[in-house]
Amino acid sequence: MDNIKLALLGNPNSGKTTLFNALTGANHYVGNWAGVTVEKKEGNLKYKDNEIVVTDLPGIYSISPYSMEEKISRNFIINEGCDIVINIVDASFIERNLLLTLQLLELRRPMIIALNMMDEAEKKNIKINVKKLSELMGIPVVPIIAKDEHGIDVLLETIVNYNYDKKSDFLIQYEKIVENEIDNIAQRLEKHDLKHYEKRWLSLKLLEKDEELIDIYPNFNEDKEVDFEEIITKTKFDYIDSLLKKSTKIPEIKFDEKSNFVDKILLNRFLGIPIFMAMMAFVFYLTFNVGGIFQNWLDIFFSSFLSNGVTSILTSLGVSSLVISLIVDGIIAGVGGVLSFVPNIAILFLAISVLEDSGYMARVALIMDKWMVKVGLSGKAFIPMILGFGCNVPAIMSTRSLENEKDRLLAILINPFMSCGARFPVYVLFSSIFFPGYETLVMFSLYALGVVMALVFAYIFRRTLFKGEPTPFIMELPPYRIPTLKALYIHVWEKVKDYITKAGTVIFGAAVVLWILLNFNFTGLVPVGESFGASIGKLIAPLFIPLGFGNWQSALSLLSGVAAKEVVVANMSILFGGADASMDVLKINLSGYFTQLSAYSFMVFVLLYTPCIAVIAVIKRETNSWKWTGFSVVYQIIVAWFSAMLVYQIGSLFIA
Fold this sequence. Notes:
Strand order of the largest sheet: 2-3-1-4-5-7
Binding site for GTP 2: 35-39
Structural class: alpha/beta
Binding site for GTP 3: 56-59
Transmembrane segments: 266-288, 300-324, 331-355, 375-397, 441-461, 499-520, 532-549, 556-579, 599-619, 631-655
Binding site for Mg(2+) 2: 21, 24-25
Strand content: 5-15%
Mean pLDDT: 84
Keywords: Cell inner membrane, Cell membrane, GTP-binding, Ion transport, Iron, Iron transport, Magnesium, Membrane, Metal-binding, Nucleotide-binding, Transmembrane, Transmembrane helix, Transport
Helix content: 55-70%
Number of helices: 29
Shape: elongated
């Protein structure tokens, strides 16, 4: 075949995305926990004159679609016509992984097993006779170590040399009672459109009462006295046992004493949450104290060196003062104000990546399960909440892993309270100006407030809008791993690149628009106080007087922040700094409009109010409802207003 479409499919955390990156040269995020891939990703490569399209599918444990990510994966394999499935199997947990393998084999599609993490298996003294395993299963088995790109060439050779015309004859012989039912259903199916389904596989799934297939073939929804699903599953596990006895030597399982010791501390019911809080406080400390050094350098570069240099060059060239103002006071002040926080953003995501890739963040979800259940959330919903610290868009998409639709919708509605990286520069700007020496404490309080508000509204919504019990939380704890430099680089670079790209597109555009709004009205060029921007800001500014910041500049910045939260900092830099938007100038100018209390109130509002347009769009896409999208936007504005108002008004009682 000259053009090959292949799909990567395996259990969560089996290394699918790592293999995808190795094959295509992409840099998609790889995490040491389940649920990192929540939508299919596509990439291309060329190998020996073969054009290969690679699709990375969400990780699943079963081909029975209980969650949205399982539906995405199964529907792609069956309906979207890939030429071959590459089933990634974690060799260090081979027995558990092979259940999905058998389910895929029963589809009788072209398939290759990529036996990944052979180094991990070797550490556990697991000996796998790859040739024997391949003979027993009737398909190629290729040992690989995806993170080191070991075995990738052999895998590609196997893919291009595969006999795509040969149909698999794989068959598991079930008990007689099951085989009789399969034959009976298969005969009845001859009168129906089988679509893309293999008849024996379809018969098996109908016998197991697969909900999605029962909806398509309702005549087969029959009550049986025998629990066929249990018999079929048991037979598969017996088959796996037989396979492994003939091909694999697995030593007696021994607890990893080091991991067990660490878990006893990190998962301790008394110490677990305080340790997590201490780690996050340390992350914020690093962000300010290390990132702040580089942030100051960039601040000087943009506010002094670049601004003065560009002004001098353009003036010498005879460029009009209006154009110079647009470039210096608008673009450089706005974009530079955002880019100066790149070091802080990089260190924040580096620290979070270390916690995620080490396996610690997965354990935090387990620690929080008890508290999540009390407010009516599944412990599994805490994983999207943690992802929200990076960006709410992929975090909301990751709710696809929740099987229960009420749990999923509830998780979507509370996720925007999790403080994403885009809000981070606002906190850095205000806390460094108004709370010097206490930046870590201020930052920690804001992130904690976001989590608390999410849990409070989960409690309220569970008892009003989404009545019912949350789905029990069952989670596979990943092994502790030392994060690789490559994985950390990819994760941090992708986040920083997105931030810089946004600065060069959204922030650039916003800076130009704001400059126009601040310099013109219907009569032409005017002073700032008479401009369109001032008029818009003054129109909505009274709404923020009870919050402590009723100036039109702040109101206009918050309004523009709906486009992207980074725009708030860009606008602040333009409105309160202009060409000389250094931290020193901003400190002097902002101090004339804010007190410590109103500054904290402002940060609380930024934390809780309507997320950016990208988040609103993904809420609409994931809920498929304008009603829930509109509800999300409106209730978050109301919550933000009342929360910031309470902070300011109650604080005013104690602070003169």
